[in-house]
Specification:
Blueprint: H1 2-28, E1 33-35, E2 55-60, E3 63-68, E4 70-72, E5 78-80, E6 93-98, E7 102-111, E8 121-129, E9 134-136, E10 139-144, H2 145-163, H3 175-183, H4 190-199, H5 203-214, H6 216-223, E11 233-239, E12 246-255, E13 262-273, E14 276-293, H7 308-318, H8 322-329, H9 335-343, H10 347-354, H11 361-374, H12 377-390, H13 393-397, H14 402-410
Parallel strand pairs: 3-11, 6-14, 10-11
Antiparallel strand pairs: 1-7, 2-3, 4-5, 7-12, 8-9, 8-10, 8-13, 13-14
Helix pairs in contact: 2-6, 7-8, 8-9, 9-10, 10-11, 11-12
C-alpha cells in the first residue's frame, strides 16, 4: 500500500510540474522560431568524433540516437546551437534561384531552452504554402533524455512479450509419450502420425501461445505508447537539458511547378509527453520565397511573331519547360536558344551560341553567368561590368542569380 501511495504521489508531482511549466511557457510567450540564415559561418562546438563532451552517438533499432551540443543535418554536417542575438535584423523573405526546375531553400529552426524538457519531445513541422497547394516537409523531433529512456523501456517490455511466444509448434508436443505410442504401432501413414501428434499436444499451452500471436499488434499499442517515428522524419535528436537553446539548419531541394513564382513557409510545433500531446506552440512564420528563374530573361522577337513553331517554343521557355523549348530553339541559334541551353546546364553550347550574337546587355550578362560556371572569373567580371554599364537593371539582377552573386561576393563588388 505504501508503494502504491508513493507511486501515485510521484505521478501527481510530475503532472503538477508539467502543468506549471506549460503555464510559464504560455505566460512568457515562449515559442519555436523559423528564420532565414544570415549566411554568417557558424562555429562548430567540439569534436563530433569524440564520445562524450560534444556529443554521443548510439544506435537502437537501426536508428541513430544523438546526444550532443550540436545537431546533424541530412548531409551529415554538424550545426552549432548558437543563440540568435536579438540585435540581428531578421529577414522574412528571400529570392531563390530556379535551376533545372528545382530550387534550394534554407531556413533555421530554433528551439529555446524554455520549451525543452527531459520528459518531453518537441515536434516541428515545416509547411510550404503555394497559391493553390501546400506541402508538409519532413519533421524535426527534439527528444528529452527521460522521454527517450521511457521509449526504450517500452520497447524492452514489448520485446519481452515477443520472446515469450514460441515459434515452433512442436514445442507443445509431448515428444517422449508420442514416440512411445508410435513405436507400438506398425502403421506409419502421415494421417495417423498427424492424429497421434494432435493427441499428444498440450492444447492449453498451445492455445495461450496462439492468443499471444494474435495479440501482437494489440500488445504493441498497449506497451509502446510512444513508438519511434519511422516515416516523414528528418531528424530525431536527443536533447541534453544543460545545453540550452538549439538551432537546426534545414536545407531542402524542391521540384517546382512552372507556374510557381513565390511560396511561403510556416512552422507548427507541438510538445508531447509519453502517449499524449501536452501543448501546441504558436505557429511561426511566414517566410516568403520569391522564385528567380533564368526564363525571365527570355526575349520576345518581333520578327518571329508569325512563326508558330518559334512562338510555341518561346512559350515553353517562359514556362520553364526547357527541354521542350530547346527542341525547336536549337534550330534558330539566337539568345533564347542560348538561354534554354543555359537552363539545361549545356554551358559550352550556350557560350558557342552567344559568341555569334551582337554584344547586347542581355548577351553580356548571360555570358558572364556562363563564364562563372566554367570558372573563368576575370572574363566573367568583364562581361558583367559591360552588361551593368549598358543597363543598370543587371546590377540588381546579379543578386538573384547565385553564379553572379557569388562572383560579386568573391571580388567584393558593391552595387
Amino acid at each position: 500500500m505504501k508503494w502504491i501511495l508513493c507511486i501515485a504521489a510521484t505521478v501527481l508531482l510530475v503532472s503538477c510540474s508539467t502543468s506549471s511549466k506549460i503555464r510559464k511557457i504560455e505566460a512568457e510567450g515562449s515559442h519555436a522560431g523559423v528564420s532565414l540564415p544570415n549566411d554568417i559561418p557558424v562555429k562548430q562546438l567540439g569534436n563530433p568524433s569524440m564520445r562524450g563532451g560534444s556529443m554521443e552517438v548510439g544506435v537502437d533499432n537501426d536508428r541513430h540516437i544523438m546526444v550532443m551540443n550540436a545537431v546533424k543535418d541530412e548531409n551529415g554536417e554538424f550545426v552549432a546551437q548558437d543563440e540568435i542575438a536579438p540585435a540581428i535584423k531578421i529577414e522574412t523573405f528571400r529570392n531563390v534561384a530556379e535551376r533545372g526546375g528545382t530550387v534550394d531553400i534554407k531556413f533555421n529552426i530554433t528551439a529555446p531552452g524554455s520549451i525543452l524538457d527531459s520528459r518531453w519531445q518537441v515536434r516541428f513541422t515545416p509547411r510550404l504554402i503555394f497559391d493553390n497547394d501546400s506541402l508538409s516537409l519532413e519533421r524535426i523531433f527534439v527528444t528529452g533524455e527521460k522521454f527517450r529512456e521511457e521509449q526504450l523501456r517500452s520497447y524492452g517490455r514489448y520485446e519481452r512479450y515477443l520472446s515469450s511466444i514460441e515459434d515452433d509448434p512442436s514445442a507443445f508436443v509431448w515428444k517422449r509419450e508420442l514416440a512411445i505410442f508410435l513405436s507400438r504401432r506398425e502403421t506409419g501413414s502421415e494421417l495417423y502420425r498427424k492424429v497421434a501428434t494432435d493427441h499428444y499436444t498440450d492444447k492449453i499451452r498451445k492455445s495461450i501461445n496462439d492468443r499471444k500471436i494474435l495479440r501482437k499488434e494489440e500488445m504493441f499499442d498497449k506497451l509502446v505508447r510512444e513508438p519511434f517515428c519511422r516515416s516523414d522524419l528528418r531528424l530525431d535528436t536527443v536533447y541534453v537539458a544543460s545545453s540550452g537553446d538549439m538551432t537546426y539548419e534545414y536545407v531542402q531541394t524542391l521540384a517546382l511547378d512552372p507556374s510557381v513564382r513565390k511560396f511561403k513557409l510556416y512552422m507548427s510545433a507541438d510538445i508531447h509527453g509519453i502517449g499524449e500531446k501536452i501543448h501546441s506552440l504558436p505557429q511561426s512564420g511566414p517566410l516568403t520565397y520569391y522564385v528567380s528563374s533564368l526564363s525571365t530573361l527570355a526575349a520576345d522577337v518581333p520578327e518571329r511573331e508569325g512563326d508558330s513553331l518559334y512562338v510555341n517554343a518561346l512559350n515553353h521557355l517562359k514556362c520553364r519547360r526547357y527541354r521542350m523549348a530547346i527542341a525547336t530553339l536549337a534550330l534558330y541559334a539566337d539568345f533564347n536558344a542560348a538561354l534554354a541551353y543555359t537552363a539545361l546546364n549545356y554551358n559550352l553550347k550556350a557560350l558557342e551560341v552567344l559568341s555569334g550574337l551582337e554584344r547586347q546587355p542581355k548577351v553580356e550578362y548571360l555570358t558572364a553567368l556562363l563564364l562563372c560556371r566554367t570558372g573563368d572569373d576575370l572574363k566573367a567580371l568583364d562581361s558583367y561590368n559591360k552588361a551593368c554599364s549598358a543597363d543598370r537593371s543587371f546590377i540588381h539582377r546579379g543578386n538573384l542569380d547565385p553564379e553572379i552573386r557569388n562572383l560579386k561576393n568573391k571580388y567584393n563588388l558593391n552595387d
